[in-house]
From TrEMBL:
Keywords, comma-separated and alphabetical: Glycosyltransferase, Transferase
Organism: Aplysia californica (California sea hare)
Membrane-spanning segments: none
Record-given protein name: Alpha-(1,6)-fucosyltransferase
Residues of the GT23 domain: 44-332
Length: 417
């Protein structure tokens, strides 16, 4: 069935068209962000100020900055990043990444206000300071998983999960290594022999286990790697089975090579060792996690746990490279989510009776707030109509696209032609 669906998906040439249109829309968003971030007059420009010092790991901090970038876009303000004293690089963001602006990095100006009053009150002030997303009250409608209304129709046509594409565009602008780091990445890619076709496997352990995620054996990941290559072999027999292994457990690589000798594992144990708890905030650790995200996002398929922010960041960036990578993953635990997102409601396509026990009744048109996918054909959620919670067949619901009106950018027209 998977093989037949793949043939149908590519038979008419529509796949190439969707990819091309995704790239066009992505280029549009990148031009809009560049326009927004480089105002002609920084002194008079409206700004949002984002402090990078959120007490969490790199992936979490990157998502914190992404929320700031979405807020800047939705409110048509220039994002000013405060990153000096950053726990990963005390000299700041530009130590490893390109600056967010070439013309405007000063948070000075006129009146200032902290997020909190009404939107109209905040709009009256030139400088808006943002809290961490956990303290964002009131919560604006433009937060994920919404997408800009002027892009929503196209995205619903060309992409399997438009909110992931939209978040990926923010990350594409933010996650731009500076020249020194890019040279290091290029040298690492060459040294490792990283190239397609390759499956990315991200095994996150250490501080996550029994706190945010359950322990998963390597075998659980490799089931999906084998499934991917088995399907590929039915179309292109003889493909070398290559795996990019990213992990914070340096023992996983040796285990992988011993148990799966028919696979070629590409990994760097120095990165794994630098990700240990004792050295997590060193220069080598920062370099390692950036390289892991960079290479995972460039894999053809991703197997990981979506409880890990590093995994989700890589998956989000994948969307900017593949056009539509919404199905190019397997998560061993969570469904995709964005920390601090608004409610994630699904629409029921086919009714299913409740059983008065674990199964919740759903009817066509109901909204169901998803709590998680059990990956056995059933998901858990709450029927918004009845308030009842329980299991329901995953295939009987679909994601809905929440389109939110955001400012237009007349200097950068929607029609890229």
């Amino acid at each position: 069935m998977l093989d037949d669906f793949e043939k149908l998906r590519t038979a008419s040439g529509s796949e190439e068209w969707r990819h091309r249109r995704s790239m066009e829309l992505g280029s549009l968003v990148q031009r809009r962000l560049a326009y927004l971030q480089n105002p002609k007059d920084c002194e008079s420009a409206k700004k949002v100020v984002c402090n990078l010092h959120k007490g969490c790991g790199f992936g979490c901090q990157l998502h914190h900055l992404t929320y700031c970038m979405i807020t800047a876009y939705a409110m048509q303000r220039t994002l000013i990043l405060e990153s000096k004293g950053w726990r990963y690089a005390p000299k700041g963001w530009e130590t490893v990444f390109m600056p967010l602006s070439e013309t405007c990095t000063d948070k000075g100006g006129g009146s200032k206000i902290r997020w909190g009053p009404s939107m109209s009150e905040m709009e009256r002030h030139q400088i808006l300071e943002l809290p961490i997303v956990d303290s964002l009250h009131p919560r604006p409608e433009f937060m994920p998983l919404s997408v800009p209304a002027d892009l929503a129709h196209d995205l619903s046509t060309i992409h399997g999960d438009p909110p992931v594409w939209w978040i990926g565009q923010m990350l594409q602008y933010l996650f731009r290594p500076n020249k020194r780091l890019q040279d290091d990445i290029d040298a690492t890619v060459k040294r490792m022999g990283f190239r397609s076709t390759i499956v990315g496997v991200h095994v996150r352990r250490t501080d996550k286990i029994n706190l945010e995620a359950a322990f998963h054996h390597l075998d659980e990941y490799m089931v999906h790697v084998k499934e991917y290559y088995d399907q590929l072999d039915r179309r292109h027999n003889g493909t070398q089975r290559r795996v990019y292994l990213a992990t914070d457990d340096s023992g996983v690589l040796e285990e992988a090579k011993k148990k799966y000798p028919s696979y070629k594992f590409i990994s760097d144990n120095l990165i794994s060792k630098s990700a240990s708890l004792g050295t997590r905030y060193s220069d080598n650790s920062l370099r390692g996690i950036i390289i892991d995200i960079y290479l995972l996002s460039r894999c053809d398929f991703l197997v990981c746990t979506f409880s890990s922010q590093v995994c989700r960041v890589a998956y989000e960036i994948m969307q900017t490279l593949h056009g539509d990578a919404s199905e190019k993953f397997r998560s061993l635990d969570d469904v995709f989510y964005y920390g601090g997102q608004n409610a994630h409601d699904l629409r029921v396509l086919e009714a299913h009776p409740g059983d008065g026990d674990s199964m919740v009744e759903i009817k066509i048109g109901d909204a169901v707030g998803i709590a998680g996918n059990h990956w056995d054909g059933y998901s858990k959620g709450t029927n918004r109509r009845t308030g009842a919670s329980g299991l329901y067949p995953s295939y009987k619901v679909e994601n809905t696209v929440v389109a939110v009106k955001m400012p237009t950018y007349p200097e950068v027209p929607l029609d890229s032609s």
